[in-house]
Design a protein that fits this description.
It is a single chain. α1 packs across α15, α2 runs parallel beside α3 and α8 crosses α13. It contains 15 helices and twelve strands. The strands form two sheets. It has a six-stranded parallel beta sheet, with helices on both faces. It has a six-stranded parallel beta sheet with strand order 9-8-7-10-11-12, with helices on both faces. α11 links the parallel β10 and β11. By secondary structure, the protein is of the alpha/beta class.
């Protein structure tokens, strides 16, 4: 099949991992996929209200800056529709696959113009997610209107979690066209046989030490601060050689950075943001992988790292919430704890630190289960919903 993949996700974004992996998997299955991006650089987003720049704390100024930026996003989306029309006139695509984004509508308009089916990937309600991240939307009514029109026009909608699917159905979207399609992993890259010795050497960790690992963007709901506090208690009570490795951009969390500076614990290591291509070997250096999400009313995520942890055959400790509870079975292929519960998190980590056989057993079962969550499997489900699963020639084309 010939698939046009339209997204507003920039190549530099973490979300581009999903875009790239899905497109590569489709090509491996023999489909021709062209990825086009509706936006280039839009300039840096205005900083939060806690910005050190006094002029950004002037009442109303941050809102105005976002209004100007959002007008730019709307204009770029409109221009992209015109830019892509010749591409569709010259090439016979079978359908358009689009990732839903704030103020995106180009894919829907092109489908309407050329009579193509639209497959819409929904990772979140863009309005709800913006609220969660504290991002104001001056043109909220426009954003909601465009989001609703896209959902109603789509031939098939693919949500990354069951809670997100349920939310769409509750808003009146036809249930028959909404499919829950969690994130996935490329098991060829995330190979459990890889060695983590190089990363251990870089970090100064000996081969006998037990490494507790966390990978993330350090948003408050990801629970890294809780993990640091719990790890401190474990260190005081456990004489085993253990380390905590926190991989990600620490600048996203000044509170976490300050906490680490105050602790001055040499066993807590923060290598910074790690390129995704390096992630398999970093995870290979971990013995225990964590996803200690904090309590949230709207947990609709499908954490990509969860599937990568599993494919690497690691023992996983994660919060029992949302899609995580549907992926992992407590005590079988991971340990699940109540979100935000330091005592439960400490007990789960201590069990695994002290029991190498349990780590091995949980990791092996997680590795086996990861076979169910591959990007190829996701592509097959999308194509089946749109076209009945016919395949075409492979291609690596991207604009």
């Amino acid at each position: 099949m010939r698939i046009l993949y339209i997204t507003s996700v920039p190549r530099s974004s973490n979300a581009n991992v999903h875009v790239r992996e899905f497109a590569e998997a489709a090509r491996r299955l023999g489909h021709e996929v062209k990825v086009v991006r509706t936006r280039g650089r839009s300039g840096p987003a205005p900083r939060s209200r806690r910005s050190r720049k006094p002029w950004l704390r002037v009442p109303g100024l941050r809102h105005l800056l976002y209004a100007l930026r959002d007008l730019q996003l709307l204009l770029k989306d409109r221009r992209s529709s015109s830019r892509l029309k010749p591409l569709l006139e010259e090439n016979g695509y079978d359908f358009i696959y689009a990732r839903a984004g704030l103020f995106d509508s180009a894919a829907r308009r092109l489908c309407e113009r050329f009579g193509l089916k639209l497959a819409l990937e929904v990772n979140a309600s863009v309005v709800r997610e913006s609220r969660l991240k504290g991002r104001p939307i001056p043109f909220k009514a426009v954003a909601r209107h465009l989001e609703r029109r896209n959902l109603e026009a789509a031939h098939a909608i693919f949500t990354v979690s069951d809670p997100l699917k349920a939310w769409l159905e509750d808003t009146g979207i036809e249930p028959a066209k909404v499919h829950s399609l969690p994130n996935a992993v490329d098991r060829r890259k995330f190979d459990a046989s890889l060695s983590g010795q190089e990363w251990r050497r870089r970090l100064g960790i000996g081969p006998q030490a037990v490494v507790v690992g966390f990978v993330g963007s350090f948003h408050p709901w990801q629970g890294a601060e809780l993990l640091v506090d719990v790890y401190g208690r474990i260190r005081r009570e456990n004489q085993a050689p253990i380390y905590l490795v926190l991989a990600g951009p620490l600048h996203n969390s000044p509170a976490l950075r300050n906490r680490l500076e105050q602790r001055k614990d040499d066993s807590i290591l923060a290598p910074g943001a790690v390129p995704h291509a390096e992630m398999p070997r970093l995870l290979a250096a971990f013995d225990i992988c964590t996803a200690p999400y904090q309590p949230m009313n709207e947990f609709y995520f499908s954490p990509l790292k969860l599937f990568e942890y599993m494919a690497m055959g690691k023992a996983v400790v994660a919060s029992r919430m949302g899609q995580i509870d549907r992926i992992l079975e407590d005590g079988v292929d991971g340990l699940l704890v109540p979100p935000g519960d330091p005592q439960a998190l400490q007990e789960a980590l201590t069990r695994l630190i002290d029991d190498e056989e349990m780590r091995r057993s949980l990791g092996n079962r997680a590795w086996q289960k990861s076979r169910q969550y591959t990007w190829e499997r996701n592509v097959l489900r999308v194509v089946a919903a749109l076209t009945g699963g016919k395949a075409g020639e492979g291609s690596d084309e991207e604009e």
